[in-house]
């Protein structure tokens, strides 16, 4: 059999030797993702593609090649046309589980930073404005004992709840499926409708996937339901929040927010959101602990190798291809 060919759309934080012994490997060397036209050319000559969420893997691209496997180094895969891949019997891999804690930790970092105004405090200090201890300088709300609303209660939402317990918070969650009473009890969480959760929560944190149902799930009406002092955290996907509604809510100082994801990504340099002090914006780094990124890359390579060998992927988002 001819040696398989694979294309890896960015440099990865691990050695690729196990893959190189099985396939001819080309790694896109730039910091920016390969342009779509390049991907379209590459896909004609490769058996396996290792991609990131910045790569648009649509039907045209999938239909242009003879891929045996698509392996995404991320848990989310909204950049890939899964239906098109499934039609062509191409398994698509992802990297769930290994980034749960890192992402939950980062959501907490954002929550704490927004509540206690860490980024504003740093700017204030560097601007030479720290002149004395002031009773009312940079005040924020209590985190301990506050009410936390978790929207989306999969692996990451539940990891958020485990951390919230330590802060003695009252924890509401909403999700398509309610958890078992045993799980609710052990996590100390209470099921709520989205409306109720928005009305009651001091902090609202988003952990749903990006699907048709969650597109702009948080828009004007939802911001109106929130407490005027509420803080919104988004480490899930940018398009779950309508950016114009977010701007309106923040500009009227109705709420504060901390987000790791935007719509579109990266955030355009002329976005009005960048002018606001009550918003913290990070460049999609929720899973960016060294250990986690290395585990994600290892898992993505393992999925790629399994696909090239014709074995079942350990983590496959379209297992129907095996029916
Ligand atoms: C990151 O956003 C991921 O989906 O892994």
From TrEMBL:
Official protein name in the record: D-glycerate dehydrogenase
Keyword Protein biosynthesis listed: no
The record's PROSITE patterns line, in alphabetical order, gives:
D_2_HYDROXYACID_DH_1, D_2_HYDROXYACID_DH_2, D_2_HYDROXYACID_DH_3
Annotated ranges, domain D-isomer specific 2-hydroxyacid dehydrogenase NAD-binding: 109-286
Q: Gene3D superfamilies in the record, alphabetically? A: NAD(P)-binding Rossmann-like Domain (3.40.50.720)
Domain called D-isomer specific 2-hydroxyacid dehydrogenase catalytic: residue spans: 8-318
Supply the InterPro entries for this chain. Answer: D-isomer_2-hydroxyacid_DH, D-isomer_2_OHA_DH_cat_dom, D-isomer_DH_CS, D-isomer_DH_CS1, D-isomer_DH_NAD-bd, NAD(P)-bd_dom_sf
Q: What family does this chain come from, according to its entry?
A: Belongs to the D-isomer specific 2-hydroxyacid dehydrogenase family.
**Per the UniProt entry, what species is this protein from, by scientific name?**
Nostoc flagelliforme FACHB-838
């Amino acid at each position: 059999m001819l040696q398989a060919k694979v294309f890896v759309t960015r440099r990865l934080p691990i050695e690729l030797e196990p893959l190189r012994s099985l396939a001819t490997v080309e790694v896109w060397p730039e910091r920016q993702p390969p342009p779509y036209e390049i991907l379209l050319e590459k896909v004609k000559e490769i058996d396996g593609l290792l991609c990131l969420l910045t790569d648009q893997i649509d039907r045209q691209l999938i239909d242009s090649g003879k891929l045996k496997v698509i392996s995404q180094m991320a848990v989310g895969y909204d950049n890939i046309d899964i239906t098109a891949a499934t039609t062509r019997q191409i398994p698509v891999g992802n990297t769930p589980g290994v980034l749960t804690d890192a992402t939950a930790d980062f959501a907490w970092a954002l929550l704490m930073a927004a509540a206690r105004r860490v980024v504003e405090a740093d700017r204030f200090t560097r601007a030479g404005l720290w002149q004395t201890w002031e009773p009312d300088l940079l005040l924020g709300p209590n985190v301990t004992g506050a009410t936390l609303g978790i929207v989306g209660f999969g692996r990451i939402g539940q990891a958020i709840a485990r951390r919230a317990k330590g802060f003695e918070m009252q924890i509401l969650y909403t999700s398509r499926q309610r958890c078992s009473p045993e799980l609710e009890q052990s996590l100390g969480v209470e099921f709520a409708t989205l409306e109720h959760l928005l009305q009651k929560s001091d902090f609202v944190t988003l952990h749903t996937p990006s699907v048709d149902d969650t597109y702009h799930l948080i828009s004007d009406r939802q911001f109106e339901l929130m407490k005027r002092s509420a803080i919104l955290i988004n480490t899930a996907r940018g398009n779950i929040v309508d950016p114009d509604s977010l701007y309106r809510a923040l500009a009227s100082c109705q709420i504060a927010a901390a987000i790791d994801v935007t719509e579109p990504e990266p955030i355009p340099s002329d976005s009005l959101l960048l002018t606001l002090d009550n918003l913290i914006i990070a460049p999609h780094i929720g899973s960016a602990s060294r250990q986690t990124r290395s585990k994600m890359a290892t898992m993505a390579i393992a999925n790629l190798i399994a696909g090239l060998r014709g074995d079942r992927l350990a983590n496959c988002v379209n297992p129907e291809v095996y029916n």
